[in-house]
Amino acid sequence: MATATNLLFPWKDAYSVNIGIVDSQHKVLVDLINELHQAMMMRTGKEHLGKALSSLVKYTQGHFKAEEGILLSNQYPDFVNHKAEHDRFTQTIVDFQDKFQRNEIGLTIGLMDLLKDWLIKHIMGVDKKYVPHLSAKGVR
User: Fold this and answer.
1) CB 4 within 8 A of CB 119
2) 135 contacts 102 by C-beta, under 8 angstroms
3) Taking the mean position of all CA atoms in its chain, how far away is CA 86?
4) Residue 42 phi/psi, 5° resolution?
5) Residue 5 pLDDT > 70, yes or no?
6) Distance between CA 35 and CA 52 in Å, rounded?
């Protein structure tokens, strides 16, 4: 079992957007990235890695849909750009998953860093931008 000290991506309170469901989902995404990283480092089989990658892709898509629902229902003015970020990242990880399944590419530290860095930048940059708007609407 991974401990906080050997995780690729430990959760930090600074990542919180103070919206319960979104923070909970972000924590699951962090956990899924860490699980995928652990599986890669333990050199588990392709089938196990594929399942971990699939879980990450599916959960990411579900999270984006939920977050977009919150933004839409609260008339977030930068929704179009926010959704475009989600769409670009979704396409990136789906393309990677397709190549992985076709044995054209493997999991690497570079990919793990890409996932971690993207999520941190997205939460700290793009997601934090909607916090004042949603807070003003009473979303918690």
Assistant:
1) no
2) no
3) 10
4) -85, 0
5) no
6) 7
Q: Look up residue 32 and give its two tokens.
A: 């899924």
pLDDT tens sequence across 34-77? 999 998 898 888 888 899 999 999 999 999 999 999 999 999 99
pLDDT at 4 over 70: no
8 Å CB contact between 15 and 121: no
The residue with tokens 């999991």 is 107
Rounded Cα distance between 71 and 127, Å, is 10
Buried b (16+ CB within 10 A) or exposed e, 72-107: eeeebeeeeebbebbeebeeebeebbeebeeeeeeb
For 28, residues 6+ apart whose C-beta sits below 8 A from its C-beta are 59, 63
Summarize pLDDT for 77-90 with one digit per residue, the tens: 999 999 999 999 99
Tokens encoding 55: 């879980």
CB 82 within 8 A of CB 126: yes
From the number of C-beta atoms within 10 Å of its C-beta (0-12, 13-18, 19+), residue 126 rates as middle
Q: What is the pTM of this model?
A: 0.91
